Amino acid sequence: AIQMTQSPPSLSASVGDRVTITCRASEDIGNELGWYQQKRGKAPKFLIYAASTSYIGVPARFSASGSGTDFTLTINGLQPEDFATYYCLQDSYYPRTFGQGTKVEIK
Amino acid sequence: EEQMVESGGGLVQFGGSLRLSCAASGFMFGNYWMTWVRQVPGKGLEWVANIKRDASVSHYLDSVRDRFSISRDNAKNSLYLQMNSLRDEDTGVYYCVRDVSPKSGGRYYDAFDLWGQGTLVTVSS
């Protein structure tokens, strides 16, 4: 199975900061990657598909890029509601695999 | 309102069986691929299985392939997960998930846009 490695596992940031999360695939997955946000005690929320395409209603401060094996999710101007855990998910091969998550905490 | 409600979770002994159900409402259930995702409380997400709109195709996580079976009944707007020979590592919250499968550049992508509230499965040894 494709291994997805996210870094860092956690980070501390302040409101207004720019935050970047990376996700690395163990094999080339083209642009077949999505990003999800999960707040404590809640189901995940879908953010990005095709590595860089924002889903409907996702704030413009969320952007993503990458292809092949290396991908990034960037939050420009972190807002209080953005403190959460973020997961990448590859949808190039079965079984689908998530990264282990990156927890964004308040500094 | 679009929603999905899981049921059927609970405490089960090692080697036992459970059948999870997911009742969908507020949307055309038969138009979507559906997926089960699980999560050990406090841990990460794990994709478990998915099934095509007409139930003709399904895929599984390697560790559950010979033990779990995903199915659906489009007439009843329902998704199921039959889980047999349960192990400790199957413990977790199981989410029923809708895949809107957006198309871009001639390819369909996974896009899990609607999630149920989850049902907790606890396997006791």
Give the tags.
heterodimer; A: 107 residues; mainly beta; 4-stranded antiparallel beta sheet; 11 strands; 51% strand; B: 125 residues; 7-stranded mixed beta sheet; 13 strands; globular
Structural account:
The complex is a heterodimer of chains A (107) and B (125). Helix content of chain A is 0%, strand content 51%. Chain A is mostly beta strands. In chain A, strands 2, 4, 5, 6, 9, 10 and 11 form a seven-stranded mixed sheet that branches. Chain A has a four-stranded antiparallel sheet with strand order 1-3-8-7, with no helix packed on it. In chain A, strand 5 and strand 6 form a beta hairpin. The model of chain A has no long low-confidence stretch (mean pLDDT 97). Chain B is mainly beta and 125 residues long. Chain B is built from no helices and 13 strands. In chain B, strands 2, 4, 5, 6, 9, 12 and 13 form a seven-stranded mixed sheet that branches. In chain B, strands 1-3-8-7 form a four-stranded antiparallel sheet, with no helix packed on it. Chain B is globular, with a radius of gyration of 14 Å. The termini of chain B are far apart. The relative contact order of chain B is 0.31. Chains A and B meet through strand 4 and strand 10 of A and strand 5 and strand 12 of B.
The amount of beta strand of chain B, in percent, is over 45%
Radius of gyration of chain B: 14 Å
Please report the total strand number of chain B as a whole number. 13
Percent in strands of chain A: over 45%
Our measurement of the CA-to-CA distance between the termini of chain A, rounded to an integer number of angstroms, reads 36 Å
Bin the helical content of chain B: under 10%
Mean pLDDT of chain B: 97
Low-confidence runs of chain B: none
Topology of chain B as a string of helices (H) and strands (E) = EEEEEEEEEEEEE
C-alpha Rg of chain A, in Å? 13 Å
Report the average pLDDT across residues of chain A.
Answer: 97
Q: How would you describe the shape of chain B?
A: globular
Q: H/E order of the elements of chain A?
A: EEEEEEEEEEE
Work out the largest interface and the residue count of each chain. A-B, 23 and 24 residues
How far apart are the termini of chain B? 40 Å
Q: Number of DSSP strands of chain A?
A: 11
Structural class of chain B: mainly beta
SS element count, helices of chain A: 0
